[in-house]
Amino acid sequence: ATWTLLNESTGEAVRNFSSWYEETAVLSPTGERLLTTDTVAEVARIRSASTGEVLRSFKDKNTSSTEMSAAFSPTGQYVFIATCCEPQSISDLSYRSRMVTWDAS
User: Fold this and answer.
1) What is the pTM of this model?
2) How many whole angstroms separate alpha carbon 13 and alpha carbon 95?
3) 43-48 and 54-58 as β-strands: parallel, antiparallel, unpaired?
């Protein structure tokens, strides 16, 4: 996949990131970091918005997920990660979800 960081005012591409497998990305309140999610690896990553370098990874070993979303707190100090796992069988139609808050500093 290729991610493109756009200038909000002009709509022009600031930077392209390629070879990422993450499904979602959100910008930190300061604009310096990206928080991405990868449901295949079941991990969320904080990346440098200027280089794409992985600065930190978050993996919750207590869950396996088919859906994952993440957000920074308003100050950028914490990340909130929510995961959901689809039912494993027709006899068990319950979805399992988990929400975790991590210190992002």
Assistant:
1) 0.73
2) 39
3) antiparallel
pLDDT in tens, 24-65: 888 999 999 999 888 777 888 999 988 889 999 988 666 565
CA dihedral 55, 59, 60, 66 (to 10 degrees): 120
How would you list the strands of the sheet with 43-48, edge to edge?
Answer: 24-27, 33-38, 43-48, 54-58
Quote the CA–CA distance of 32 and 34 in Å, as a whole number.
7
Nearest CA to 60 among 104, 99, 89, 24?
99
What would the DSSP string read from start to end of 38-73?
Answer: ETTTTEEEEEETTT--EEEEE--TT---SEEEEEE-
How much of the chain is helix, strand and coil, in % rounded to 5?
0, 55, 45
